[in-house]
Amino acid sequence: MDVVVCLKQVPARDAALRLSPAGNWIETFDASPEMNEPDAYALEEALRLKERHGGSVTAFSAGPPEAASVLREALAKGADAAVLIEGEGLEQADPLRTARLLAAGIRRKPFDLVLTGLQSDDAGFGQTGVVLAELLDVPHAAIVVEIAAEGDRLTVKQELEAGWFQKVEMTAPALLTIQSGINKVRYATLMGIKKARTKPLERIPAAELGVSVEPAQKIAKLYAPQKSKQTQMLTGSAKEQAEALVEKLRFEARVL
Amino acid sequence: MSVVVVIELQDGAIVPMSWEALVAGGTAADALGESLIAVALGSDLTAIEAQLSAKPVSEVVLLEHPLLERYTADGYVAALASAFAELKPKLALFPHTYQVRDFGPKLAARMGRAFVSDAVGLGVEDGRPVFVRQMFQGKFQADVTVEGEGTVFASIQSGSFRADVLVDGPASPLRRLDVALSADQIRTKPLERFRETAGAVDLSSAERIVSVGRGIKDPENLPLVEKLAAALGAEVAASRPICDNGWLPLERQVGSSGQTVAPKLYLALGISGAIQHVVGMKGSKTIVAVNKDASAPIFEIADYGIVGDLFEVAPALIEALERSS
């Protein structure tokens, strides 16, 4: 089974983020980038499918040149090849443009399955995979928590609201967006990191793919969220904070 | 031109979040000076005709076909794409449900358009819709616009608009549009929906909840949370990552993929407050947030906030509770 997995580089979860002077993105240089967490689960699932069924894993990313680091991480964990569709500022591309770029790159070679994370930790539109399925003209399922494959028949378990699930059948080639927590992700071994250096990492300039650079949607303004409540911040030592809170919960909020 | 709201059905009944999307659509239709159309899909929609047409809409459009009996992304996208080619909506809104996450962006892409997912606000500026949505795990909000000519697609997050402002009135006209669908267009086969556990823990009836997030760092630290919960007479709950890691069972998860709760007291320990968690607990009467990061979005919805190390604050709280009881 030849699996393509799409990975995005995003700011680290606990990074302190600051607004850019333009006011519509963050300062990326202090955001210590890492692999988007849901994508890490998708990569792990791709590697497990290869271990079970044979075939290959190719990691794709559309992003700025620095995004190569998440592809190197994928190679170190066991992906066979990687492709970076690169262009300055691509981390800000809207999902339709990103999916068009990925589709143009992925279409170049046959595949059985494309996996993506269900959403990114930065923009969080949660749709690049679903749009990619439309552009590649393959069936898909979003928010998948289990994959069973028999030949080209796939039975996947989809997560629905409030603890409900549903199984869905389809025939490969197909695309699945992977829910976090579907597996336990592996760490790259020293041997893996060494081996990764000999694996192919192709760079395709985004401009060569003939995808429109016009944004489909635009972030006009980014700003700190507006408070919906008056929050009383309790200060002092942990002991003082705790005592003040118990007092307030008992006599002000009356919830104890 | 019109504003279209796509109503979601589950087992033949209208999913409540659809009403919130309809309210959002009504607000936008007024501001844009457009008519409001409710659209529903299914194999036989006779049972919901009256319920839908009583709503303050200019028209109800029904898309009926035997192949729409059960949801499939292929079926819904084909049916809606052909309906939209006829209706040419200026704006198409959807409730931000799991089903919409599965087909909404695909529909927009088929029409060469963007899809603004997970909007928590919607306004109109210079005759065009402007959406508000969270980004960077809730650390920022963004005003988002859609570029180019054609339908503007968006999904509305639960709790962003109040459905209770909808008042039933005289019946609006109903129209059935022809749906051309063939079985070979539908490439996925949905099987039965099911629930994994019987939901042994019903968090929705808990009066007090202590909920724990990534800040707990290690499952070995969970007893501290349990001890605090015991001192408060509270149930223990968690945000998604804790359950993903298997540190607590899935049935204790609060959020869009877990339970929705509204206790008297919700104490969030080391939870940053991403929207997926917040939608499951923002109805709580009193919210307390303990987090080491003063800019964590959880503080925006908290009544009481403590910026500090939960490993110092939680033991101090246990002590203070024991002393004062």
What does this structure look like?
The complex is a heterodimer of chains A (256) and B (325). With 256 residues, chain A is α/β, with parallel strands linked by helices. Chain A is built from 6 helices and 13 strands. Chain A folds into 2 domains: 2-209, HUPs (Rossmann fold); 229-256, no CATH class. Helices cover 27% and strands 29% of the residues of chain A. In chain A, strands 9-8-7-10-6-1-4-5-11 form a 9-stranded mixed sheet, sandwiched between helices. In chain A, strands 2-3 form a two-stranded antiparallel sheet. Chain A is globular and about 65 Å long. Chain B is an alpha/beta fold and 325 residues long. Chain B folds into 2 domains: 2-185, 3-Layer(aba) Sandwich (Rossmann fold); 203-324, TPP-binding domain (Rossmann fold). Helices cover 26% and strands 30% of the residues of chain B. Chain B is built from 8 helices and 17 strands. The radius of gyration of chain B is 22 Å and the shape is elongated. Chains A and B meet through helix 3, helix 4, strand 7, strand 9 and strand 12 of A and helix 3, helix 4, strand 7, strand 8 and strand 9 of B. Strand 12 of chain A pairs antiparallel with strand 9 of chain B, so a sheet runs across the interface.
